[in-house]
Amino acid sequence: MITSHTKHMSMHQFKSEQYLPIDREKAWAFFSSPKNLSVITPPEMEFKILTALHGEEIYEGMKIDYTVKPLLGIKVRWQTEICRVDNKKYFTDRQTKGPYKTWEHTHTFEDTDKGLLMTDVVNYSLYFGFIGKLVERLVVRRKINSIFAYRKNILDKLFK
Question: What is the DSSP track for the chain?
Fold first, then answer.
């Protein structure tokens, strides 16, 4: 379930929750492998990892370079750094190079009576002041919603 978009000054927040019918071990194995990002990213974004990955699990300080077409078919280089990891509970990645002024994405995994609850919280801001705020409201917010709706659909199919 995509739950909210909130705003604090020029910072925006997106939050999504999804129950997965898998255990924490299986979820962590899937989401802590950077190569699986391409599986859950819409194909029209042409997501390509540039960093040589050797099947390793994420770790604090890991940097991942890739190209993606987030908006209007324009290819951009993006680098994220895994900045916090609590094994099998959560991890946070932060954009260190890319199109956003700030982008920080926390993935949390929690056992509940309904199954494994995966929560994504993205805090982000754009450049260009008023124009950036307008672009966020008219374009970026919708794009983020569509990316996470795609992910939810793919994850529902992968983990039936």
Answer: -EEEEEEETTEEEEEEEEEESS-HHHHHHHHT-GGGGTTTS-GGG--EE-S---SPPP-TT-EEEEEE--STT--EEEEEEEEEEETTTEEEEEEEESSSSEEEEEEEEEEETTEEEEEEEEEEE-SSHHHHHHHIIIIIHHHHHHHHHHHHHHHHHHT-
